[in-house]
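Summarise what follows for lecture notes:
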Amino acid sequence: MKKHIMVLAPFFFLIGIYLLIGSYGLFESERTNTSQIDIAKWQVKVNNDSIDGSTSTFTVDNINWNSSPNVKEGKIAPGGSGYFDIVIDPNDTDVSIIYNITFDFSNLDEDQFQIDEIIELDNKPIVHTDTYTYSNIMTLDDINNNETNTIRVYLSWVNDENNNEKDSDLGKVYNNSIEIPITVEILQYMDGDTLTSIEENTP
């Protein structure tokens, strides 16, 4: 009897190892299959540059000035006007978004420069949510349709004889330019989120 047991012992030992390896393989297979999670993409571009995180601050200095026969092409002088664009492109994003664009016009002397109009060129109703903040919601349907939002800012240099000295000081600086800091905030839109215009907050 002992001889039979000794003969069978290696057999049972091999069976045990086989079952153990099979069980471990099954566990590994199940763990791998159940741990995969698809994450929604979050990639928003502003003027063709991807922004990191939810907020990006940059400076606009390439304003498109309207041509004048009395001013060199690409330059601006008192009495001139122009515009610049901010393009929001969320087409590599898998969720609806809210964007808030805040313009810092503090570098501009309000006696010299005037913000004439801020509009959305794609017939989207942007909301004036704060003094110089403009916001909108872009739904997943908008994103899937490859839509973008273009916010255009029109401005002009006021031709006022009272500003002659200040106007001359600007022109004396070599390669001087007008710079406007802008902050763009991108947030995920959640059901129930709303945008309130500054006019609605004014008593």
About this structure: The first strand starts at residue 45 and ends at 46. The two ends are 101 Å apart (CA to CA). The CA atoms of residues 124 and 149 lie 7 Å apart. The helical segments are 2-34, 140-144, 164-172, 198-201.
